[in-house]
């Protein structure tokens, strides 16, 4: 009996040792894969698209189209990585700039209705899991203004924490929460309309030809009210990065000049999307 127990105990120790060695080997392999992916990320382009870059035209889908409720909107958004991901915590430093324009092309002289200047600086952290790049987390300081003076001036700032996670090759979820720093004299109540946090989900077919996205921003009230954006996009050519684009916006804060005016717009046009996912 004693001999049998000794044999069982010896086998148990051997198996335990084998399992521990297996776990150590598995950890080493995962660490090597993560290091390899990080190196690949660091060797990638420093200058990239940041948010969607688009040109769209549209109107109010409910009421009769007029020069007052129809317009063109376009956005240019870029990012420049300043360092590799060798900063504390595996982070990197980057700059981002987004320029949004509302253009009243259906009015006489076709005036530019509003500009939104949105520069920012932030720390990003690439995220890896199961041998693949799955997204990134960011900590950013952003400024938003319309570049005007006097009573038409609008501006505010925010410190934002966000993340975008690719669940698989078709599904991405993202979220962002921010601390506002309102410095504009003419928009002291802007948080009531642009809120304090947002979230969204994006789906793309495996061939990345067709996709849709839904994003909501909770307004800064105790009511269940949201600013909602729904995007549909289709890429007609395999090797192109241009998509036909349909966008519906419902809510406040679409432009800084009219941040406290409700907007309901359906627009169509062309969008150029970043390689992995768009920032929101």
Largest sheet, strands/sense/barrel: 12 strands, antiparallel, barrel
Low-confidence stretches: 24-30
Mean pLDDT level: 89
State the secondary-structure class: alpha+beta
What is the helical fraction, as a range of percent? 10-25%
Strand order of the largest sheet: 2-3-4-5-6-7-8-9-10-11-12-13
Give the ordered list of helices and strands: HEEEEEEEEHEEEEE
Strand composition percent: over 45%
Count every helix, treating DSSP H or I runs of 4 or more residues as helices.
Answer: 2
Distance between the termini: 69 Å
The total beta strand count reads 13
Which outline best applies?
globular
Radius of gyration: 24 Å
What can you tell me about this protein's structure?
- This protein has a twelve-stranded antiparallel beta barrel with strand order 2-3-4-5-6-7-8-9-10-11-12-13.
- With 280 residues, it is of the alpha+beta class.
- It has helices spanning 2-42, 191-194; strands spanning 47-49, 53-59, 70-81, 92-103, 112-129, 132-145, 155-166, 171-181, 197-204, 210-218, 226-234, 242-251, 263-272.
- It contains two helices and 13 strands.
- Mean pLDDT is 89; it is low at 24-30.
- The N and C termini lie far apart (69 Å).
- Strand 5 (112-129) and strand 6 form a beta hairpin.
